[in-house]
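Hi,

I'm pasting everything inline rather than attaching a file, because the server keeps stripping attachments. The sequence lines come first, and each chain or strand is labelled.
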Amino acid sequence: MKKKGMKVLITGGAGFIGSATARALMDRGDTPILIDNFNDYYDPRIKEDRIKKFLKDYKGQFKLYRGDIRDRAFLEKVYKKERPEKVVHLAAMAGVRNSLKDPALYADVNVMGTTYLLDLAVKYGVKNFLYASSSSVYGNNTKLPFAETDPVDTPISPYAATKKATELLAHVYSHIHALPTTGLRFFTVYGPWGRPDMALFTFTQDIIAGNTIKVYNYGDMTRNFTYIDDIVSGILTCLDADLACAVMNIGGDKEERLTRFIEVIEENVGKKAKKKMMPIQPGDVKSTVADIRRLRKLGWKPTTRIEVGIKNFVEWYKGYFKA
Ligand SMILES: NC(=O)c1ccc[n+]([C@@H]2O[C@H](COP(=O)([O-])OP(=O)(O)OC[C@H]3O[C@@H](n4cnc5c(N)ncnc54)[C@H](O)[C@@H]3O)[C@@H](O)[C@H]2O)c1
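And the predicted assembly:
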């Protein structure tokens, strides 16, 4: 059962999903404690603005610690001072393609950082530990939709391998220390305040500027795009469920073609895209489709279609960049 006004540690709190989760927690009376190192994997100004602008009406209702999850002493200070009841661990090096360029950094942040956080969660008596995994753990599995019971032993990028590693570590901590953990396998998240390295952002940017967009696998790709509000409600559902040890798909319920996704962006921008058709990129998968029955059983359901979600994004984008 959710207790009113609990303290929740959110790592990656200045990130896309972290900042939106913080907002939703404050809306229901909880107190988020944010950790972020504001690294420059993408323009850190948007991270600063998520804190300054997106969370501006919540001043005094959350705390922010600037620091690195690879710094155990720093993490311990935060745990000791704040004594969070629950943890939502979202800080990570994200991005499949970038992980091929610097696999060691991904291993360091995603695996080592997660290990410290799990370890301290046990030491400081955390009651539920959620952590971001990813749909990318399914690799090139051919059985669709992807279900949590499917084997995920064949990742195809360093990023995916680190996410699978965090699931294995979490299992150990649940098993040995009875720490409740839930791994959240997010499926392509999009929406306002989204990540500048993701397709919706770069496509919108390039269509507005009249630049050519690269359409991989010649457009023959499908995704369960998941709107940020649906992701956040899924996170809160898992946060309140206190499952002993689980992994959970959180994905939209409609398989969308990449070409349709681009069409909806064009409609909202009011301009046709110049497209360059390209082969699939190393590490990328052709389809990610989520079996979401497990999370549905906890009462969650996704509600936002891309027609609405992309409209909201493009409106936000135009306002934010005064485009
Ligand atoms: N957005 C998606 O579609 C998606 C899909 C699957 C999984 N995920 C996972 O969800 C989580 C959140 O993703 P997001 O889209 O919000 O990404 P994001 O990059 O916007 O957020 C991650 C945040 O973590 C911070 N961070 C990174 N390394 C850190 C470190 N060493 N110490 C402290 N902070 C650090 C970053 O500065 C960033 O603000 C990530 O773990 C990501 O791998 C995201």
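Residues 12, 14-18, 35-39, 47, 68-70, 90-94, 109, 113, 132, 134, 186, 188-189, 195 surround nicotinamide-adenine-dinucleotide (CB under 6 Å).

If the labels don't parse on your end, tell me and I'll reformat.
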